[in-house]
Amino acid sequence: MGLVMDGRVWVFGDHINTDLMCPGAYQWGTWEEIRPHVLEACNPRFPKEVGPGDVIIAGRNFGCGSSREKAPKNLKHLGIRCVVAESFGRLFFRNCIAIGLPILPCGNVASRFETGDRARIDVEQAVVENCTRGLRLTAEPLSREMIDTLREGGIIALLRK
Amino acid sequence: MGMTMAEKVLERAGGKAPVRAGQYITAKPDLVFMGDGLADVYTILQEANVGSIWDASKVVSLMDHAVPSPTIGLAEKYKTIRTAVRELGIATAYGERVGICHQALPEKGHVIPGEFILGLDSHSTTHGAFGAASTAIGYTEMAYVLKTGALWVRVPETIKFNILGELSPRVMSKDVLLHIAGRYSVEVAQYKAIEFTGPTARGMSVAGRMTMSNMGVELGAKFAFFEADEKTLAFLRQRTQRPVGLFGADADARYESVHEVDVSALEPQVSLPHRVDNVAPISAIGNIKIDQAFLGSCTNARTEDLEVAAGILEGRHIHRDVRMLVIPASWEVYTEAMRKGLMEIFIRAGALIGTPGCGPCCGTHQGILAGGERCIGSHNRNFKGRMGSNDAEVYLASPATVAASAIEGCIADPRTY
């Protein structure tokens, strides 16, 4: 999987928890049942308008709370290509690498974007650019092992080897 | 230079090469445990064509989040778990006859001080109360661990909370944890380990310590330790044949930060919607009417918690506008509470009793909230929409405060009982 991507941005604030990405009342339902509720409580437009190739830019502690792996999987199924945040809940962070959803920690990133901007993200080089506003930010690099897992598309591909 | 508890455990689990905070290592868990997530893990193993696992004797399985199943989907999931247990040869499988994983694991003697434990549920930090380095991973990573018996781990920095002062009557370890959340925020231990120490921590019961380690994850922590002392060993020795010993940090261990928390003047604390660190003392809470009072979850539904609540409810009635749910954390707790007459007190007071399990805490089982409803609970998260409607409100407090509030119909101070 290529780790350089260009996409339309959805901005979220601080402390977005995994319940918001995967509400308990729907989490064991079908994809059709859960889809309309992914991050609905944060931004009702998001589940309706998100499209393949979009990226999320968020504040601190993104993905805090429950370990539910369906949280990042729901984002991936909606077509989210990459999540950049100022910091992450540790379980969400690990789960993203494990399922092959590129993720990047980047300080002060949330205030540099608005929903609808275009971002270019190079996960391996740890660079985040706001193409709409002409800004370039340096992110915190991932470890070699994380990059390799993401390149494979996640752990399942590694397990099949 | 001395070592923290996290460094000691990970050095051994990583194969004995010296480790320091900040380092990435590959570590081998001493135990993995899975609740309902085994269904998902098994599906992933099948998808990846993995037919056998590294060591089935190190795996514990049980069912806890929604037993007995309320939907066809969950019934299918539990069916898959039974298949997984059989096909993978998992000998230690308790099914739905044990309770919440975090209560059952130490009760059944699976938690050993100094060991490295991996679970699927975020509150796996609970076992830090016994000096174990215990944390959660996701389904896909668990599938990887089941195949390989190893996982990459970053050795965490440790922050220490030195807890001092005597707790007032009706003020519980839950109040201490909520106070710490309110004062230091839900990010204070992000990617880090916690050690709860000091005279008040040492004076806490095993149950009280479990509440704090359990909610360590709400402070962002990877591990949330108490030292394993004589009290820990007294609890574990009746439950396991394996050797258990004292376990703690070195006196000269290096901490990222040390915080002193004096609890001698601490009031009961309440966490308000929709974040755990949105905390206020009970005296600052106005008249907040409630529709539901929940005494349950892996955080606060042990015998000691039920005893405190029953002590307040005995001879009284739950407010007519409130439904109170009591869900013991495990079958052992349920049995003990029956024997002590606590269940009769709850029933006579008008409470609804649920099967040991997670109940409405995570919004999947009985006690889901309607729009506009308010719940006060002894559980661990008050996130928007977690217990049902996005328009419901959840308040977190101790079992004592939950019981007092159930009687009064609004959030109430347990110290008047």
Task: Describe, in plain words, how this protein is organized in 3D.
The complex is a heterodimer of chains A (161) and B (417). By secondary structure, chain A is of the alpha/beta class. Helices cover 29% and strands 20% of the residues of chain A. Chain A has one domain: Aconitase, domain 4. Chain A has 7 helices and 7 strands. Chain A has a 7-stranded mixed β-sheet, with helices on one face. In chain A, strand 5 and strand 6 (127-130) form a beta hairpin. Chain B has 417 residues and is α/β, with parallel strands linked by helices. Chain B is 30% helix and 17% strand. In chain B, the strands form 5 sheets. Chain B has a 5-stranded parallel β-sheet, with helices on one face. In chain B, strands 16-15-14-17-18 form a 5-stranded parallel β-sheet, covered by helices on one side. In chain B, strand 12 and strand 13 form a beta hairpin. In chain B, helix 2 (38-47) crosses helix 5. The longest helix of chain B has 17 residues, at 72-88.
| Number of continuous helical runs of chain B | 13
CATH superfamily heading of chain A: Aconitase, domain 4
Termini Cα gap of chain B: 50 Å
Rg estimate of chain A, integer Å: 15 Å
Strands of chain B, count: 18
Q: Based on helices, strands and strand pairing, what is the structural class of chain B?
A: alpha/beta
* CATH second-level architecture of chain A: Alpha-Beta Barrel
Précis, in short:
Chain A has helices at residues 18-21, 31-34, 45-49, 70-77, 90-99, 144-152, 155-160, and strands spanning 4-12, 55-58, 82-85, 103-105, 118-122, 127-130, 135-138. With 161 residues, chain A is α/β, with parallel strands linked by helices.
